[in-house]
Structures
1.
Amino acid sequence: MFQALANPQRFMAFSRWAAPVLAVIAAGLLGWGLWLSFSAPEDYQQGATVRLMFIHVPAAYMAMFCYACLGAASLVGLVFRHVLADAAARACAPLGAGFTALALITGMLWGRPMWGTWWVWDARVTSVLVLFLFYIGYMALQAAIDDETRAARASGILALVGLINLPIIKFSVDWWNTLHQPASVFRKGGPSLPPEFLWPLGVMALAYMALFGALWLVRIRAEVWRKRAQSLALQAAG
Amino acid sequence: MSMTSLDYGKYAIFIWPALAVTAAVLAWMVADSLLRARYWQKKVQVLEAARAQPGEKPAP
């Protein structure tokens, strides 16, 4: 499938219907997830703030997932020099930065009432901030180099270096003593959350994932058109 | 599972801003992606139309 979609024309034909379909799925899941979130009971310890979990945790998942996509696209771009892979990496970074910013801001708004502080330099929170800086660095490097091939190569290498941060984020709560709570969904022995919290969390995570899928396809399409416009402008000038 | 009140008491000042920030960031991601795609699609259409009629200069 990926090999078939590597052809830009086939990708444009596929994404033309896939992006709206994913957008409709995302809207439906988002509506359902929000309804479940507002209907969920209060937690016996965290009270109403447990609702912040349903927007914060999926954002944190997506922050890492987007970076994995960015790294994979960058690797394919570096190894195979495929123009669509570079476009995919370039299109992914702003979305990943958005989800990471969301995870950090909603985390601060959850941390203040639960931890008594907006920010703490513990391993989990700091490693997610480092992830955000990798996204910003990637986009800054892309913008700073005029030659797009060189920009894609330099920023691709930076993206690959940043991949080392993903297991650090995931296992930071196990490797170090942190204020952040340990994993409660993806852990040995299964999720520790009761169904009334697990359902809204799962539906919201799927909603964020579908939204990312739709927007990623739209942004890759924009990148393909941008390159086409540059090529046409060069032909017109020459 | 029953619909609970939207009055979050002392935690409202954390919950509502978090929801507002989430809505704003997601809306920005949607708007920026759609506007970017529309801008470059139109640009390509203008340039291709200009190429089809070599006498005319493409709009800037």
Note: The helical segments of chain A are 2-5, 8-39, 53-80, 83-115, 123-144, 148-162, 165-175, 195-237.
2.
Amino acid sequence: MSSDATEVTAGGPAPVDRMAGVAATPGVAKPDPILKAHGVRRSFGGLTAVDVEHLEVQRGTITALIGPNGAGKSTLFNLLTGFDRVDAGEWSFEGRRLNGLGGHRVARSGMVRTFQLTKALTRLTVLDNMLLAAQGQLGERVWGAFLRSGWRGQERANIERAEQLLERFKLLDKRHEMAGNLSGGQRKLLEMARSLMVDPSMVMLDEPMAGVNPALVQSLLGHITALRDDGMTVLFVEHDMDVIMGISDWIVVLAQGQVIAEGRPEDIRADQRVVDAYLGAQHGEPADAEEGR
Amino acid sequence: MDFLYILATAIETAIGPIAAVYALAAIGLNLHFGYTGLLNFGQVGFMLVGGYGVAVSVSTFGLPLWAGVLASIGCAVLLALLLGIPTLRLRADYLSICTIAVAEVARLVYRAEFARDVTGGVYGLQGFASAFYDANPFPRGDYGIGDISFSARDLWMMIAAWGLVLVASVVMWLLIHSPWGRVIKGIREDEEAVRSLGKNVFAYKMQSLVLGGVFGALAGALIAVNQQTITPDQFMPQVTFYLWAMLLLGGAGRTLGPVLGAVVMWFLLTVFDETLRSLAATGVLPFLQGSDVGALRHAMVGLALLLLIVFRPQGIIGNRKEMLVNVK
């Protein structure tokens, strides 16, 4: 992952160009997919929540996952990250199959998610929230915990890295405060910073802008673009169309559990199926139909 | 009414071996609930298997006492696995329902007729701790200051029991102030978030359940050794609730919370008991019989818990600010 990151920042092609020549058709293959899912299906009782025939996510891009309420976006997120079990299908991340792996093992493989309802660990300090996310800590083993000399050095290095990240997300002066005392927007920032502490190659953000005051949205957007510029792949679920159109390199539209369209923002804006999915297919007054064509 | 006598008796109970036993079991509960957020309503079950681990090994199988202590630790680990494997992957409430049931089932199994050859059934087992008292370095006699005095036997027992409490507290402090403790506390706050950061939440919860259970089992072993006799009906569900009362009184999520809670609680209980008893004896309150004192004591524990939750929800040494983070 790190070698990849340097390639991208060292004057590689601009991220948008990564999608050059990719047709805007559902399930289209990408030149360099980091995540590939095939036949992923999940139903709750009689309702099929997710039924994705084929989906690839291009490395080093910001891909948005949109769709009307109940389209299965969050369910697909949960499935891909190991927080829910699929009924059928397989998917791989960086060429490694992830089927049946628990959420913690998916995270360890480099795909880290955040949650729609922010999950700041409220009765831990901001710094502890960050340190918790560091991987491979010797002191996290029950016997290792007693050997202070064994994990002190590691802890110091982690604190340093955590403080750098907190600085970047403008939370450094809050580091000794309980995470529960942060505002909603700050919690979102903390959650994003914390996911970076895992050192992921792909970040999955579940509605990062939900419940954030408008003044903070711009700063959050900046942080998301910065993730891509650092060489990470971002897949995020979002409702706000302006936000999505502004920063996404690629958009995947989900409706009733299926991928009904994907493409660049301009392709999606012009796609009649997307409009139908959002407004309902019966909106067809003559004026609308003409506009669609 | 002799206040000095009441005070001395209360202090004797508060620093006596029984208080130490409860402190040790409450330390285990503190790891479960105070740090990991596991609702364990069956801590008494761990005490039961711990106590019988010693008693059965020594009385029934003729093993030495130290082997008995190892056996009680082994039983606690087994019980924790039995409880944890099916329930720890589920939501928190399932564990709490199972713990209360399993503790009670265990008590009924240990007192059952078919188990009589091993556990002594309802009559329990006796005389298995002589090895411990033979090792008592204190010569016979009474030790103490003023009205507070302990026999050589009690003193030896107190040293063993409070020694174990000290060791357990140090172990807890080291664990909680380590990255391991950070993960455990993270699980208390939100286990999904911790899982999303690459931690095996199930394994951590299991470690916590096992370790806290072992503290409970050691407390049970101490009860057995202290009394030189053990019967299943000492391990009724209310023991667990006494432990909860002590933990909340002292302050959950604090290393010394359960220890302080046990000491203060036993002090208050004894003051209350003795005062009522002497009042009943003098006949000042004609409606009060000596036999009512025991029942009134339970009512007082309830009242005390109620007042505690209203006026000091964080316990004596708990952190109110931390407690109220989620209550906005």
Note: Confidence is low (pLDDT under 50) at residues 1-16, 284-293 of chain A.
